[in-house]
Each structure stands twice: as structure tokens, then as C-alpha cells.
Design brief:
- Strands 2-1-3-4-5 form a five-stranded mixed β-sheet, sandwiched between helices.
- 56% of the residues lie in helices and 14% in strands.
- The protein folds into two domains: 91 residues, DNA polymerase, domain 1, CATH 1.10.150; 135 residues, Cytidine Deaminase, domain 2.
- By secondary structure, the protein is of the alpha+beta class.
């Protein structure tokens, strides 16, 4: 049981929060409030300070998994549940925020939206986000789990799903469990192929976001989506030119066959 001083301290924290939100709170006091959700009769001040010491920042605590939290003495499943609940509520708010506004220039919002659900994955998961003509999210689906490469992901399947969703554009995302978000050669090849397939179907690929640790890599932000689009256009122009040359040579050959001096 907490002492009268501890109970009074917790009461003052709660009253302060109700009155003015988190303004003026120390990070450990925010964590203390969260821990009291699962341990309402326990003094959580020292525990909060130890938690902050382990995870360095308030964000680090909020991003910790329940397993990581329960590795600390005194944090049981109920306290971990309270922090996990805050994580999920924050994620849902970010989801609603991103659904309500255009996202084609918002790689950071895509990262924020997906980070909590992908940070602890031990395998690569490839997600497709389908958007309408107003660049609002229609749906998000998991297309593949495991090592991501061009053979695991079918551009045809992606485009068939896009047509089924009546999507006007697409955003791709996957995680790197290693924590390094830099794209591999396979990531680049796959993204190029998907941009090419989208160009053929007139469905625009807005971005491919790779999440690694607490960082991300944006293909659009690095100019690679535009580069792939230009490459496809050049190939298309070259293909048309080659077709015209073949037609010209065929006509020339045919005229020579029928020419009699």
C-alpha cells in the first residue's frame, strides 16, 4: 500500500493533468501516471524513473513492447497493458489523421502510422496501401511475409488488387528487422518493376517506404520513383521508335520485292 504522501502525490498529478493536460510535466511523471493505470494502489514514482532510465526518453518508453517493459522489476502485465493501450490509441489517431488528408507527400505520416505495428516484427512484411483519386486511403493489406524480392511479390497481383479496390494510386511499405532502412538491390528492382506495372495500368505509385528501427527510407523522397517513371517513359519512347523503324524496314523490303526496273 502507498503511504499517505505517495497517495497525495499521485492525486496531485492526476488533478494537474485533468486541469491542464501534460503541460509542465516531467517525462517520468507522465510515465508514472501511465503506470498507475495498471497499479492504482502502488507508488510508481521510482519505478517510472527507472523505466525512463532504461528507455532513455518518453518516446522510447511508449515504443517499448510489453515484453521489454515487463523485463523491469515491478512492471507486470497490467502496467504494460496501460502503456500498450496508449500506443494503440495513438496509432489509431494517426491512422484517422492520415485518412483525412492527402498523403502523397507524407512519408513521415506513413512511417508514424505503420511504425508501432511493424517495429517488433522479426520477418519482413510487405504492405500495399490503396488510395483513391483524392489520395485518401481506401485500405491497407499485407501482401507478403518473409524476405522481400521480386519473385515473392507479383506486380500482376498488386495491380489486380488495385483494380478491385478501384485505386487511383498506391504506396508500398515494408520493414527491415535489421534496423537499417537502406534499400537492398532487390528492394530497388521490385520498386522499379511495380512503378513500370503501374505506369502500364495508369495507376500511380506514390512511394515505397522502408521502416528500419526508428528510421525510414522514402523512394519518393530520394527521387527514385520519379527516376523509374522517366526510365519507363524512355523505354516506351524507344519501343515506339523501334516499332516504327521495323515497320519502315518491312515496307522498304516489300517495295524492293515488288520493284521491277
Amino acid at each position: 500500500m502507498p503511504t499517505n504522501d505517495a497517495a497525495g502525490h499521485r492525486k496531485r498529478l492526476r488533478e494537474k493533468f485533468i486541469k491542464s493536460g501534460l503541460a509542465g510535466f516531467h517525462d517520468y511523471e507522465v510515465i508514472e501516471l501511465l503506470l498507475t493505470l495498471g497499479s492504482p494502489r502502488k507508488d510508481c514514482k521510482q519505478q517510472a524513473k527507472e523505466t525512463l532510465k532504461k528507455f532513455k526518453t518518453l518516446r522510447g518508453v511508449l515504443q517499448a513492447s510489453p515484453r521489454e517493459l515487463q523485463e523491469l522489476d515491478g512492471i507486470g502485465p497490467h502496467s504494460a497493458f496501460g502503456i500498450k493501450l496508449v500506443q494503440e490509441v495513438a496509432r489509431e489517431l494517426l491512422k484517422q489523421k492520415i485518412i483525412d488528408k492527402p498523403v502523397y507527400k507524407s512519408a513521415k505520416e506513413i512511417f508514424d502510422y505503420l511504425y508501432y505495428s511493424m517495429r517488433d516484427l522479426t520477418k519482413e512484411v510487405f504492405k500495399v496501401i490503396y488510395l483513391n483519386s483524392q489520395n485518401q486511403i481506401i485500405d491497407t493489406t499485407d501482401l507478403s511475409e518473409g524476405t522481400i524480392n521480386s519473385s515473392a511479390i507479383s506486380p500482376r497481383e498488386v495491380m489486380e488488387n488495385a483494380i478491385r479496390y478501384h485505386a487511383a494510386s498506391l504506396i508500398f511499405a515494408h520493414n527491415h528487422p535489421s534496423g537499417n532502412p537502406e534499400p537492398s538491390p532487390s528492394d530497388k528492382d521490385l520498386t522499379r518493376d511495380l512503378v513500370y506495372a503501374g505506369s502500364i495500368m495508369r495507376i500511380k505509385v506514390l512511394d515505397h517506404v522502408i521502416i528500419g528501427g526508428n528510421k525510414y527510407f522514402s523512394f519518393a523522397g530520394e527521387g527514385l520513383i520519379e527516376e523509374y517513371e522517366l526510365n519507363f517513359l524512355n523505354l516506351k519512347i524507344k519501343g515506339v521508335s523501334e516499332a516504327k523503324r521495323r515497320l519502315y524496314r518491312a515496307k522498304l523490303f516489300d517495295s524492293e520485292l515488288h520493284w521491277h526496273p
